[in-house]
Fold this protein.
Amino acid sequence: MNTIELEIISNQYVCKFYFERRINVIKGDSGTGKTSLLELVRDTSPDIIKNISLDVLVADDLGWKALMTASKNAIIIFDDSNVIDSAEFAKCCYEYVVKNNLYLLIFNRESLKIEQNGEGSGYMPHISYSIDSIYRLCSDGINHWLEPFYNLNTFNQSSKLDICITEDSSGGFEFFNKLLNMLSVEHSDGGKSAIVDKIERMSIKDKNILVVFDRAAFGCEIEKFVNKLRDYNITVLDSYECFEELLLRSNLFLNNQEVKRVFNNLPAYANKYCLSWEVFFEKFLACITKEKPYKYLHGKRLRECYFEECGSFSFCTFELSQKCDLDIKGSKLDWLLKDTKYSYLLTFHDNGKNITRKMSAF
Amino acid sequence: MLYIHVGQVERECIRTIDPYFNRNKSKDWFNRDDVKKIIKNIDLSIAVKDEYIESPVFGGMSPTKLSTGCKAVILMAVLEKPYIYATKCGDNCVPDILEISRNKDVHITLHHIMQFPESGFEAVIAESGKKVCTFGGFVDEYYRIRDNF
């Protein structure tokens, strides 16, 4: 299933919602019709027209766990719930959402970041959700629809940049450091939750900053990012899910039928296996490269195959190159990204010949 | 004065706005000018008399059908010592919250960044006692406390 639909039409209320991911957060002003929506969801009167991809259930603070455990193939709505920042809720999401084919619609202004105190259940990862699945509920009185909640400045070829900060400190950082060699590139030194502190510590308010974070899993951090850095000149990458997605969209996999199939129906594949698309891309890339010399493992050092000319580095021996399906001469980065979704990143790549801007700026 | 609590929700704080409001509402509330104004500003509805409200979408309706944010702000106006979980309030509630807190002490708990104006308001962050007068000051103090939980 590609897109989940939730359409409800009555004489006083029309809503048409479409979403692609499993975890969806809806915010907005008071009085935009959220309570009325819940009433209509529960109402089975024949005058109400409903086009809904799956069953819709409304969770309350007492019965939510039983609902998540027992329901299958359903949209579950959490309305101003007091449990969504609990470790128990996160645990249930990881355990049941994919297994039971659930889609969550969470009406809440709080972040899904887990409150650390009082839970006593040890470390629990925050729920990974995309900034692109945080919506604003809009209304003109009768009609109701969803719009993206966060509109960040996105990178384009005319963007002026001085510095790049990456969330990733391993492969992604290494790649962007090579790719954006006309800029100073640094990593946050602590993942996504350390980006804001890193930028504040660097005193770069007067600089044009490109921040590379995984949109697919930045939902918990975006409120802080937007509000704390509102006086900075920040640019982000448009629809950049994560580093692995960038590699999968590169020319390295241009003729890979499996990759083509996945991107033609991404929500269906990603939602089938993982709660977060970030994790899906990590696993998918690892899987399709596992037998290759350019094997990729998330969190590990990136092999030179992704940025150095074939045959030009010690790992790429004659014996290995005989088994490899790559033999790219010239700039590997140019070849990888040319005419792809991310070709605009080559604007700040000059094959390493001229890096005076980087050297002089910092 | 507006007192903003950003830590854990305390027992005295009204978090379940809808049931509390529906149980405790009194018809006199809806004849008050300040409450009529709140209903008009947030839910674009008119409190005609007692508990009769006219909504542009639903027509005549009971106060129980007001939005949760509107109910929360009404409670701030009518309770003697209000202490409300204001993360239930959308940003369109901010002007009314600030207006009420100009005339009396209002305690709210916030677990999100409410979009206060850039300047021209006053609030005290309850955990630190720090007074904030700008949106930036509020954001900095909010994360300073919450990041050190």
